[in-house]
Design a protein that fits this description.
10 strands; six-stranded parallel sheet; two-stranded antiparallel sheet; 49% helix; 346 residues; binds glycine; alpha/beta
């Protein structure tokens, strides 16, 4: 069933969306329980829902939190006609979606993303799961939420780094879509966000993503477009995590975009001027990537273990132009190192 995406205040629409459930459960993490759930008070929904709270943070997207959600659902009488509302960032929507997809072989769930990253990416498109054995999103299933409610009022609860983190995925969507959309993103001031303009850009971004997912829900081909920036970005993200200096996902994706646009320029004739403009924007907005050439051997190892690889071959999504995909490009080691040099030195 195609996913229903609603751009509306959550408090208004949740009572209607959950009206035919025998019981409604609201999954939050400790942060969204405090900061976001109160924004739903006054709605018919909030008092009627049974809260389930898990600890915040990606390191809690694990079997223990999942087991807690299953236990709460079970002990508080959830049936196959119950619904789970996942109120939070990607950690909550990923884990909650997986809990709902597996409880009693599947109950319905609604995602209410509260971060920019979750609105434009995690909560949309049916990827659910948890981290396992030290690997991100190692266990999960594809299962669409009954509906995704995009309520951009939650964006005002975010700090600047989290706003920037989500914006990197929007920049990626703009690169996949059109030069006009890209230009609008490069003009957007993240220092003093115009929230009305941001809401409009969020909607465009969600539409780019859902259009791709509609055509390829289980990532056989076209959905790999959404990995633009992620082959390099994930390696940087894992390196920084290993070093105990973690950085938000979107920052690493933004740095990954610089690398993959550089490869696109070299291998697919992507325009030089756009590579320069996007790289300048990323450097100004996200700062310099905290890596040196001493990190290259470990970065290469991490890239070789990326779960998107087949037969150990590192694979990237490139662009021949804005909106023109070159999927499954296998860069040589020399090309990868050159792209990291470009990231560091411009
Ligand atoms: N985050 C990429 C995807 O949903 O496919």
């Amino acid at each position: 069933m195609p996913q229903q995406i609603l751009y509306t205040p959550a408090a208004t629409v949740l009572p209607e969306l959950t009206a035919d459930a025998d019981r409604v459960f609201a999954l939050c993490d400790a942060t969204t329980a405090q900061v976001c759930a109160p924004l739903l008070s006054g709605a018919g929904f909030a008092p009627a829902a049974t809260p389930i709270v898990i600890p915040a943070g990606d390191d809690n997207k694990d079997v223990a939190s999942l087991s807690h959600v299953w236990a709460e659902l079970s002990q508080r009488g959830a049936s196959r006609s119950s619904m789970l509302v996942c109120l939070g960032g990607g950690m909550v929507t990923d884990l909650g979606g997986f809990a709902a997809a597996t409880f009693k072989r599947g109950i319905r769930f609604v995602n209410v993303p509260t971060t920019l990253l979750a609105m434009v990416d995690a909560a949309v498109g049916g990827k659910t799961g948890i981290n396992f054995g030290g690997l991100k999103n190692e266990v999960g299933v594809f299962r669409e939420a009954e509906a995704v409610v995009i309520d951009t009022a939650f964006l005002r609860t975010l700090d600047a780094p989290n706003l920037l983190s989500g914006f990197a995925e929007m920049l990626k969507h703009a690169l996949l879509h059109s030069e006009d959309m890209l230009a609008e993103h490069l003009r957007f001031s993240l220092d003093e966000p115009d929230y009305a303009a941001l809401s409009r850009l969020v909607r465009q971004s969600v539409e780019v993503k859902s259009n791709v997912v509609r055509q390829d829900p289980t990532e056989r081909g076209l959905r790999k477009a959404l990995n633009l920036g992620h082959t390099f970005g994930h390696a940087v993200e894992s390196l920084l995590l290993e070093r105990a200096t973690p950085q938000l996902h979107g920052y690493c994706v933004a740095w990954g975009l610089i690398c993959e646009l550089y490869l696109s320029l070299q291998a697919a004739a992507f325009p030089q001027d756009i590579t320069t403009r996007v790289s300048r924007f990323v450097r100004q907005t996200y700062g310099a990537a905290p890596i040196t050439c001493k990190d290259y051997p470990r970065l290469l190892q991490l890239m070789r273990h990326d779960k998107k690889n087949r037969d150990g071959t590192i694979s990237c999504t490139l662009l021949a132009a804005v909106g023109q995909l070159r999927l499954d490009y296998a860069p040589s080691e020399a090309e990868i190192l050159e792209a990291f040099d470009f990231l560091r030195e411009g």
